[in-house]
Structure of site-specific DNA-methyltransferase (adenine-specific):
Amino acid sequence: MITSEEIKRRLWDGANELRGSMDASRYKDYMLGLMFYKFLSDKTLSTFKSIYTKDHITESELITAFKQSIASSGPQLEKTLQAMQGYYVLPQYLYQTWIKDINSGDFEVQKVIDSLNHFERSIAGSKDADDFKNLFSSSTLDLTDTALGSNLNERSKNIKALILLFADLDMVALQKGDVLGDAYEYLIGQFAMESGKKAGEFYTPRQVSEIMAQIAAKTSNIRSIYDPTVGSGSLLLTVKKHLSKEVQQSLTYYGQEKNTATYNLARMNLLLHEVKPNKMTIKNGDTLSHDWPEDPAHPNEGIQFDAVVMNPPYSAKNWNRAGLKVSDPRFEMAGVLPPDSKGDFAFLLHGLFHLGQSGTMAIVLPHGVLFRGAAEGEIRKRLLEKNYIDTIIGLPSNLFSNTGIPVVIIILKKNRHLAEPVLIIDASNHFIKVGKQNVLQEKDIAKIVDTYVNRSEEAGYSHLANRQEIIANEYNLNIPRYIEAIDNEIAHDVDGHLFGGIPQHNIDELAIIKSTTPDLLQAALQSVRPNYVTLKGDVTGLSDDILNDPRVMNQSAKLAQQAQTYIDKYWPQIITIDDQDKIHDLMESMLAEIKTLLSGFNNIDIYDGYQIIAEIWQSSLLHDCEIIALTDFYTAGRSRVPNMVTKGTGDKKREVQDGFIGSIVPNALIASELYAEELVNIENNKSQIQTLEGELAELIEAAKVEDSTEYEALYESLKKNDDDEPLDAFDNKKLKEELKNSPKNSEQYKLLKKVDKLISEKSALSKQVKSDELALKEAVQEQILNLTDHEIDNLMYKKWFGNTVALLSELIKKTIKAELKTLQMLSERYQDTLTSIDDEILQLEAELQAMMQELVVTQ
């Protein structure tokens, strides 16, 4: 029972340990290529088993039977396997054969090379040849590369270690529920982050893919999808994820990729995600130099697709090496060629040329395409005149690992009415910082997609730009021309500073408090002159009154009740989930419903609530539902797995088991809920240890002060460094000697005895804590196996939803608290007037003058 999260962690840790100094962008080809070959071998054995027997049989027995069948009816069996899955791997070339050779000491790198070469030859004449051709070519997997090791022995050692990394993984079983595909996609993403600028050629960050894919998936009757710069195929697969199972089964995938290694990566990625060979057409070629895919029946039209998605290289220089003319059917509509120094519009026009009349295209490009002039300005004007541009989405800078520039997603459609406005969304300020990268949260993605779907306008965020506005701006689509950023800084009022008082118009802007508890706000204010007020008391008192007012409390209680009903509805669906394919649908249902629930309340941000539920899924539910679907809820609750920890460094670095952890129930939660008394005792002893350490630290500091009683009694007992300088600890051996040589009734003896007692008490308590913690750890590990159904219910509810109702109901008060904070700031801003400041200055001057008069000059 291994989950995708565990596979991801294990494989990535293995990759980091094995690749050494090899560049991540290069090492990924070896690791992902061999991982894919393991899948091909496992799939071959699985297909043979379905032909050979339905009985339980070990892998070793299955391989033996496979060898015998090939020996007796080779050509016919090969033909059958080819027909059933589009490829096959012969027994002597199986991944399992490599492992057997490694275990017996007969492994040779040449056997791996021979296996990969034979696979290429075996599929050469099949109808699916294009899907597998050159997957393992030496340009991609050069097993003689000195980067894998300076000599044959080193290369053999490193390749063996990489092969063994996948040895115990059943790739066919893991393919179900996209566990294998997700792990593969995760590795691609991790390699992308490690590769820095080189990542741009093969990976689109998940958050950007999600926006484009969710929008593209809104296309009705989608049957085909095309990515002209397919990279690793992540965009195509993200769109797939957002389509129903029925649509996925009939969907055809097209893609083109210039980089050969990345092209191979895309084909592997799609096949691992259960895209059938006959449903995918991926080409290795330059998208711009020659149009593809072409429709032989309509040479000037090209094949049309229901969805086109792409993340092309930004501002590609010298893109027109083929000497294309404006007469190329892809560029005819624009009337001009994009500049050779920037290929952004060349990619856009290529994608648009292949977009079906009722389809949707999503492309991510640098912001410059919105406002640059010359030929690009002409192309933009032509696109707007035909009203092909549907939506502009401005994203934050520094989202990509290969560039820090801000980017924009452009959505294009061909069937828009000429009067339909262009939706412009400015999401550039909606992100969090994670390390050096800016990251869109789940709520940011959801808000962008909802705004797109609803065509909604929001001040400072989105705007529907009509034709007249766009013409008035001379077809310049730079986002600040249409959306004015909201300045949350409240302007200073000169009269307020001079004469005191909060401007009444600032009070009027506290819209939420005024709509919720207007009487309490009014009662807390007093007029100081026309249009200026002050607070009668402090904001703290007013805050307590407002936040505890029945109107606010009733709304919080109402939201809490509805949130509880919402959780109660989904609880049984979560704990009874029995199919990994249902997990994504359940998550989407919960996320959609929380938005509907929260939209029934005024003055809250529904996307803050959305984020709360999204984080529960990301942090635990995705992982736990996967395990539940593989077994069942209570079996999973009573299951434990080895707790593997890394120890040592360098050559001595190793992974060892440190007890057990619950498969879904956290050990810490079991301890806090079922062993509370034991935890309290441990914490009390730890607290007592801290007290003793504090007393010892005081005595150490006192012992360093010359001429003090402590110095005379304790200095010699302190530990010293090589320069005989005192350290921050006592030397037990010296302490015992000093104690032995001191008169029993002396002050020195009393202090030494005190230190000795403190050290003894601390040592005894430390041993007790260590013993108690070990006993608790062992008790918890055993308790996992003996949890009752009732205990599992309580523990898992606390893990998933322990504070969810409180967090959701707190949304009612969140915006009120923000306005109360603003009121506090305004009150402090205008508290000191110019007159009061002048009075304070005069008072200080008078005090200074009085002090100066008291000064006496002495000779």
